[in-house]
Amino acid sequence: MQQQIESIVLPNGLAIVSERMPDTRAAAFCWLLPGGSVYQQPGKAGTSTILADLLFRGAGQRSGRELLGQLSLLGVQNEESITPAHLVLSGVTQARNLVETLPVYADILRRPHLPEEEFDAARSGLEMTLASNEDDPRQKLTLELRRRTYPAPWGIPADGELADLPAIDMDDVRQLAKSSLQPHQAIFSVASSLALNDLLPTLEKLLGDWQPGEITAPPLPPTTGGYDHLTHESQQTQIGIAYPAADSTHPDYLKAWAIVSILSGGMSSRLFTEVREKRGLCYSVSANLHSLKGAARVICSASSQNERAQETLDVLLAELQRLKLGIAGEELARCKALAKSSLVMAQDSTSSRAASIARDWYQLGYVRTLQSLKQQIEDLTVSDLLAYLDRWPLANLQILTVGPQPLVIHFNQ
Amino acid sequence: MQQQIESIVLPNGLAIVSERMPDTRAAAFCWLLPGGSVYQQPGKAGTSTILADLLFRGAGQRSGRELLGQLSLLGVQNEESITPAHLVLSGVTQARNLVETLPVYADILRRPHLPEEEFDAARSGLEMTLASNEDDPRQKLTLELRRRTYPAPWGIPADGELADLPAIDMDDVRQLAKSSLQPHQAIFSVASSLALNDLLPTLEKLLGDWQPGEITAPPLPPTTGGYDHLTHESQQTQIGIAYPAADSTHPDYLKAWAIVSILSGGMSSRLFTEVREKRGLCYSVSANLHSLKGAARVICSASSQNERAQETLDVLLAELQRLKLGIAGEELARCKALAKSSLVMAQDSTSSRAASIARDWYQLGYVRTLQSLKQQIEDLTVSDLLAYLDRWPLANLQILTVGPQPLVIHFNQ
């Protein structure tokens, strides 16, 4: 599992992080720009997504059509997304085309046309996406639970809000472009067979004189928890529970991760066994660890038929409380085995590695190697996990249900 | 792109296909058993899914709990699915655990307990999954379009039908287990650093005396096409169009594939440009080539706001008709570039390779190497594609819409 990680920070602030994967002919890259949803003006959620769309409608010497045609000719399969902290431009192609791809992205970042006449098309595309999410109760649960457990602006739906769209105009987009499309706090990551030195001269030529701006992320207030219900006429009730856990910058992070794996990793996990297999209460139940930089949540969710929703919620809460009563050695052994096979798989995927090293750089300022992760997971003991559960008691739960009827919370915060 | 493909067919009929990927430490495997949805009794759609669930509730010396625990300890991330032709058991783990995983699967296939007392839990789990699909209009479009364009039993929803569930009983499951869990027409594929010879002694010991049955897939009648509308109160109308194309066993297959890529591969593709970017008609539009063994369809789908649904359908049909008027050399060049980067990426993924070599073996009786695919794609010319469009004219269209109002079809079959 020897990994070759290289990194450099240009004088203007742009961090470049590379993982060399000598056995692959694919190349994946990620641009993290400080233009995520927390940087939008209040009441204008959606500006980031519209900006990401407009970036590909012409840049430098190329019209939008020429730009997209050029990326296709280079075999680039690109994807854009918005997280709370970042506007993310990622892509995969053949390693042999990677160097030629860089000037196209340099144009997109430094010389986008942002054509005003296409603003309406971009906004109406987003409107249709958001409207279609409205019809999906599982999607709604995820977004609304996050909104409640992470105080604003960190919890607002990253893609945007339907109600905000009419208020957004081209000036908002230009302002966000100005503050976010600059090298200060920006990260470029790449995973391929190339060494950093194969790319650096080109990157320095294209981006060395990119002028940095100043940008500071808004603070993230603590959560208090609570219960909320959204009425939705359907056969199924969606149930969500979120509560604080150690985030990825915290020394306890892997313990939080192991706890969640014991709850929900694989078909022997507690939630799958207790909620689904034994009681047949619902067809989907899961727990995930969701981490921002400096704050994380365990997020449990379940979909259940309405008449069994109360029992599902009761069992979920009971399972969360039962954790501190003890963890079997075999549960931890299973969690470690699944983690190791996941690490082995992650090692084969350029796009997974490019995303991971960029995220590590942002959250930690360095890259965790898979070898060190594996070792730390190997070293975990049941007492470590129980001590973690003492330090991070089940508290400040945010519970949300979406369905015809609210439920009763049998739990004292 | 040198690939090492090995295969052997045991005397009892079981085909074993292996791709050696020396650079990875991951291992992926696929069991294709002739127990897909076409083998269910008429009016009992769901039997295959219930069987797949019950297979993991105990086998050989292990209870269900022990079985799942053992798979987790081996780091196996397993996944089961039903296609028209197959009951598919797949998984990934570390290559070092692969040999130990084989006896567990041999138990599952040859000595499953199929506990009657857990039948209700398995069926009610499926009921909840299918009920939740009912709420999702995009899912509904996909399933109902397939049902209409592929005559029964090939077009029925592979996972099952809500209305059929009450009619299914344990005898149906046992009967399907008997006919499908046997080596005749079964395929086992694996992609890992191991050679076939590293696995063969174990496989022969475990499965050499597995007794074959006899099984024949039902015939697949031709389609006639038509228009249908399903009323659904929503803001969006779902539009689907399906029509016959060269299937994966046909010499014209890659031409069909290239046509679909020109329609829908990447952001420069025709549908994305004409329907979404230029006219802003919908937020999602795509075309895919869906191939069974011996029959395939181009399947186009779009989601549009109700008031723009008619125009979206009109533009979609116009784009399909416009294909035969000409294809630009640059369109084909982009399609080739994207195909090559996809092939390079597929080469890194054990699970993608294990699935591909199993499917190739089933559909073709041999494995297409990525090198030969690449060469055949490289050799395609615009005249090849236009000649294909002559041989496979746009006909027998099956159109389906899901939304508040039916649309008008401006197209003469």
TrEMBL record, chains A, B:
It comes from the Bacteria. Residues 16-150 form the Peptidase M16 N-terminal domain. SUPFAM superfamilies: LuxS/MPP-like metallohydrolase. Residues 168-337 form the Peptidase M16 C-terminal domain. InterPro entries: Metalloenz_LuxS/M16, MPP/UQCRC_Complex, Pept_M16_N, Peptidase_M16_C. PANTHER family: HYPOTHETICAL ZINC PROTEASE (PTHR11851:SF219), METALLOPROTEASE (PTHR11851). One of its GO terms (molecular function) is metal ion binding. This is Peptidase M16 C-terminal domain-containing protein.
